[in-house]
What we know:
By secondary structure, the protein is an alpha/beta fold.
Amino acid sequence: MRTILIAAILSLVMSATSLAQTKPKVFIAPTQDGFANFITSALIENKVPIEITVDESNAAYVIVSSGIVKGQNRWYDTVFGAEKDRNQGSMKIIRVSDRVVVWGSSTGDNSFWFHGLKNMGQAKVANRLARKLKRDLPNIMSPDENKTAESDNKNNVSEILEKETGVLSSKPIQETKKPVVNAKNYNEGGYYAFNRKEYSNAEASYRTAIEAEPNNAVYHSNLAAALNAQGKFEEAEKAIELAVSLAPNNPIYKKNLETVRSNKNAGTFYILKPTF
Length: 276
């Protein structure tokens, strides 16, 4: 009897493990506005049970997303309820095998109470979309779709990308045309990653923002904050020195430079704060 019970438990564990490992494979179509990066992060952070692949030939589904930045809300928007969403975004899922749209949703970043004071940008929009997908996913996506033949898969995905984004494949974006990077979005993403203490992710976001706008002192200062938080004081010093050289009259950057040098030379460890 005991042997049978142990065997039954092992069988259940193995079945659960098998189910956990079998997830629908999803390719996230790149976007020129950078919103796809927020979608990717949100799907991972919300533990949506999918397998994100960077190779479109392995994908059973394609996620196509779009984000719109409408601008800053004013105090009177908050009071009178006009233009509630500073950012809006949409996402749809296309099944590769038959190119059918199986799910779609859109949302904004407003909150019910004092929404004008609680806007968190595209990161919040992406998180809301990810939570909606997690709720609906069992009814719309199946790991059985992973069995699609690889050659046909790539052709189908290429056609989907061409129709939805104007690009034949994900790879030519890197090979023939450098995507337009919205530096503000990456700076904003770095800010929220920093506040979550994901300092390496914040560093990566700030570096991308700097690549797009190398003469923006704010981005160099924020990069210094992320590097400093990781104990990379020499790199942080170089970054904040660049910020000072770009904005020599900014007292905050000069103070931050002193702080980084103190951390580097005196063994102190003071945290710098990034800004928008």
